[in-house]
Amino acid sequence: MTQPxxxxxxxxxxxxxYLQVLTQAKKEGKETISSQELSEWxxxxxxxxxxxxxxxxxxxxxxxxxxxxxxxxxxxxILRTAGQHNIALFGAGHLGRAIASSHIFADHGFTVVAIFDxxxxxxxxKVGTVTVRAIEDLKQAVEDEDxxxxxLAVPGGSAQQLADRLVDAGxxxxxxxxxxxxxxxxxxxxxxxxxxxxxxYALYFYLT
Length: 208
Prior knowledge:
Elements: H1 9-27, E1 32-33, H2 35-42, H3 46-54, E2 60-61, E3 65-67, H4 68-78, E4 85-90, H5 94-101, E5 110-116, E6 126-127, E7 130-133, H6 138-145, E8 147-152, H7 156-169, E9 173-176, E10 189-192, H8 195-207
Parallel strand pairs: 4-5, 4-8, 5-7, 8-9, 9-10
Antiparallel strand pairs: 1-3, 2-3, 6-7
Helix pairs in contact: 1-4, 2-3, 6-7
GO molecular function: DNA binding; DNA-binding transcription factor activity
DNA-binding region: 17-56
Protein name: Redox-sensing transcriptional repressor Rex
């Protein structure tokens, strides 16, 4: 299997979409999947799907399709996400608890190993199997738990301060559920998830 040093944004985004569908198909017990089925679920042209995957090796068989389990493993390797990656979650409110209890991260090898909140009444509580900690414990937790991703499920007014703490602790990836526009050094990656923006994006394609 050949792999370039760095994937283009377009290829990486499409591979991530394929992986999402394949992971769900695997959970449902599906053993094989065709490029046409992947196309129907991802809305990516089946020719483009075959082109994307053929660039990394020969995965499928004509008339049979792709082996789901094998393709999940191969795409994780291509995206360099194989193995477990530890997450620090900020915010033990309704959104934070929903994120912590969801299987979405776990299905892709991400584990919430630390939860932080600035509310004294929440500190010490259990969210699943994880105990909520004080923000002041962040730096030590990043070192002890080998945390690579910070997830912000907090109000916008708190997000920048927490992002600064994550950067100071050495975390290079921040997933931002707030509406704040975060200022971070160029070596730190921020992904902001906004349902409103996603809806506008979907509405644009519906109207056009």
